[in-house]
Write a structure and sequence with these properties.
Elements lengths: L1 H18 L4 H7 L2 H15 L3 H23 L6 H16 L5 H16 L5 H13 L4 H18 L8 H9 L1 H9 L4 H23 L1
Length: 211
């Protein structure tokens, strides 16, 4: 169910961005999606039986999605799955390091990479994925996400991004509800193909309307 909610809110966000840019409600609802994907990445990192295969699946989805992503949104950014893939690699490397200056220096280096290269969500996305990986559900998780949102508000003027705290609050304060949502499963093929498939459909619609 969590996966279904992530897919639906992402679709709503992208439809709003493309076809109803003057109606912010679409984008507000869409703020639910990325925290759920960040949370799913943390769960996948912890529970996957093969980190190598997990990263390769992400890389494959990212590569498959890039062209329709660029066509749909007329951008040269790297789509969000590249951000997830890079974060997954970083988390795997950090698992093999003891906490200390080497780990912090590596995080700072990847942070700079996310800011310099056109990763979707930039360093904000990286920090949110790190928060979900290292913070247990609870007040600290919500507090760290809130601080990150406030920093993004002052740095980039991301007002709508403030609404992304909603799914984090559910994760932190509704564990019983969340366990029930996580117990529902959908076909793996749908979860893995939805991102590139919906981008391809949106790209076709955008170009048909533009003709």
């Amino acid at each position: 169910m969590m996966q279904l909610l992530a897919m639906l809110t992402m679709l709503i966000d992208h439809v709003g961005l493309l076809f109803f840019p003057d109606q912010p409600l679409w984008r507000i609802i869409g703020r639910i999606a990325f925290p759920l994907y960040a949370y799913a990445l943390a769960l996948g990192h912890r529970h996957t039986s093969s980190h190598g295969k997990y990263v390769l699946r992400l890389l494959g989805i990212a590569a498959l999605s890039q062209m329709p992503y660029q066509l749909a949104f007329d951008t040269n950014e790297l789509n969000v799955v590249f951000s997830l893939c890079a974060a997954a690699i970083l988390l795997r490397v950090l698992d093999g390091l003891s906490p200390g200056w080497i780990s912090y220096a590596l995080i700072a280096l990847i942070y700079a990479m996310f800011e310099v290269f056109p990763f979707e969500y930039g360093a904000y996305g990286l920090l949110l994925m790190l928060i979900f990986n290292y913070m247990k559900p609870g007040p600290m998780l919500v507090g760290m996400h809130l601080l990150l949102n406030l920093a993004a508000l002052f740095a980039y003027g991301w007002v709508i991004q403030l609404f992304s705290i909603i799914p984090t609050m559910i994760i932190a304060y509704g564990p019983n509800l969340w366990r029930r949502l996580e117990s529902w499963r959908m076909p793996r093929w749908l979860w893995r193909t939805f991102y590139p498939a919906h981008l391809a459909v949106l790209a076709v619609i955008v170009h048909l309307i533009g003709e």
